[in-house]
Amino acid sequence: MSTKTGNVPLKQDFSHLKTGRINLTILRDSILQQIKRCMNQFQTEKSNLPKQFTKDKCVIIDDDIKNLLGHIQALNELGANDIRIFKERQHDTSDYKITLFIVRPKPIYMEIIANMIRDEMNKLTQLKTKEIILKQYGIIFVPRQSRVCEEKLKEKGVLGDIIIDELNLDFLPIDTDLLSMESYDCFRDLYLNKDTTPIFNLAHGLITLQQLYGIIPNVFVKGDKAKQCYDSMMRMQREVPDNEKKVPTQIENLILIDRSIDLITPMMIPATYEALLDETFGRGQKSCAYTHSVEVEHHVFINLHSLQFFCLPDNYEIIDSSLDDIKYVLNPTYSKEQIEQLDKNEKMVRAYDGTLYLPGIVGLNNIKANDYCNVILQALINVGPLRDYFLQEDNYADIRVAPGDIMINLVKRFGELVRKLWNPRNFKAHVSPHEMLQAVVKCSKKRFQITQQGDPVEFLAWLLNSLHLTLNGTKNSNSSIIYKAFQGKMKVYTRKIPPIDLSEDEKRKLLAIEEYREYDEEIPYLFLSVDLPPPPLFRDEFKESIIPQVPLFQILTKFDGQTAQEHKTYKDNFLKRYEIRKLPPYLILCFRRFTKNTFYLEKNPTIVNFPIKNVDLRELLPEYRIEPSALIESPSTTYDLISNVVHDGEPGKGTYRVHILHKGSGTWYELQDLHVVDVLPQMITLSESYLQIWERRDVSQLFTKT
């Protein structure tokens, strides 16, 4: 054990705690009593040692257990002539009267111990003495014995020659105010082997604490595994005799948290990252920052508005080039030359943590159920003109809004997210969308949440319209970057249908009335909602569901101006025809997979067959139908796929992922929250596409790099 040197630390004040500081000496004394109890089984008088035994006791102990016992100064309690570190090889202890193993319950250890005992027994047998039966072997399992280990010893034929005990080293006081439960295989057992033994051990350790320090009145649980531990602890607590529960309460609160719970993402905000200066409180002597620097000796602070570093409490500015990376991560900036090279770059960059990644192909944290937002954000940031606009903060920094209008936060947070996702100098190969999603929740008045699943199409429609209006967009098609990139125009022809119970003469009379004549109106659109054919009701000859397939061009005939669809209202029926008048630079297609009936939400599993390149939609435009000679390939009507959003699983319960084309390398990537993998283009067409973004071939001519 090392001894701390230097200045004597100040006495800490625990007066704010109701019960004061917990006395961990009680736990240490309890552990020492357990060790003495175990050792009392292995005692002998040295004067009575048989002649073949020259020494009394040898203890062979796990290295980590030895370190733990060393923390509480318990090694002397073992009363051993020799203490050895257990290794995966045999030890010769034939000259000891007692051989004691203190080990973790691992089957491989049992095999080593069994082989060692059999070899020593054979050696003592060759001495031809009756005193062989006086040789003692013992195993003390930490923290508990295992049935698997007992079966292994039984299989080796040495179980009857060993005294077995257990030492419940659950929580160890490794410092004056720190307890530790050493469980090196906990993650593997729980999440890989599905073994709940670590949960049982934790619950048992908590019961031991409550026997020593009283019942803990307030228990807070977060996560499924934590809930299992709490339930196990309560069952054990009911089995404890009443006379052992009458200990005054010394521990007020217990917090159980799963290690799978994401504790970082909810705190990934600038105030948590840098600890830093709030413009309201400043850095004066009465500020929180000043107090924090004195109490915790955290001296470096940054102003998130000016990006200046200060040293507190001395209050001087720190100017050092080594801090530039932090400034750039907080607020990435891009020159026009850098923006022009984004779609040409095919090289990966290395994050500060050593991970390789492609800027723009970056994972997003899923805080709880915001994958439906992540796929839309990842798809939009790869739309070139939209990306280029938001990479330059000057484009939207001076937008005028009405006083108190919170929608400006949505624009700023979206721009900030775009800049961070395309940052080639990130510290990690993923980005947290937490600030953007906070703005979404607030600006949508909690219509879109991060804690429950939503519809990506609804989120996309709301986001595009909100960005357009906040950027001072109007009905003019060039009034914002949103309309420039995504707005098209279509003409809708509507005709009211006469009631079916009328005679033919009555129907003809009604059709002559103005109310039943066909009329048209031209409307703008940001995306096209495409209907899928209904799935078959019957199964195939193998009694399996048939998954239908439909070509993309077949379902796009809805917009050719000739295909009529019936629309019903509570009162009247109408026939409508849709005719595309203008194709946008970026065409968004939404496939209507989900329909609501009276009882539940249904999902259409139809697979849409589509090429990922060279999709010519000129036949949807009326001028090409009128003039057949115009049916030649044109870049103004030819599209390439750049994003494909997919839904997997049942309606309302599934997950979303997105396929993104990286233009620089020409490689497709699949992104699902933090997971980023490359994918073959052929696999994209086999997925249940829900939303797609197509890029027109002449986009580079329409948009000037800004």
UniProtKB/TrEMBL annotation:
Keyword set includes Protein biosynthesis: no
Gene Ontology CC annotation, any one: spliceosomal complex
Catalytic reactions on record: Thiol-dependent hydrolysis of ester, thioester, amide, peptide and isopeptide bonds formed by the C-terminal Gly of ubiquitin (a 76-residue protein attached to proteins as an intracellular targeting signal)
Domain USP residue range list: 362-697
Predominant location category: nucleus
Pfam family of the protein (one): UCH
InterPro entries recorded: Papain-like_cys_pep_sf, Peptidase_C19_UCH, Sec-1-like_dom1, Sec1-like, Sec1-like_dom2, Sec1-like_sf, Ub_carboxyl-term_hydrolase, USP
The protein, known as: ubiquitinyl hydrolase 1
Organism of derivation: Rotaria sordida
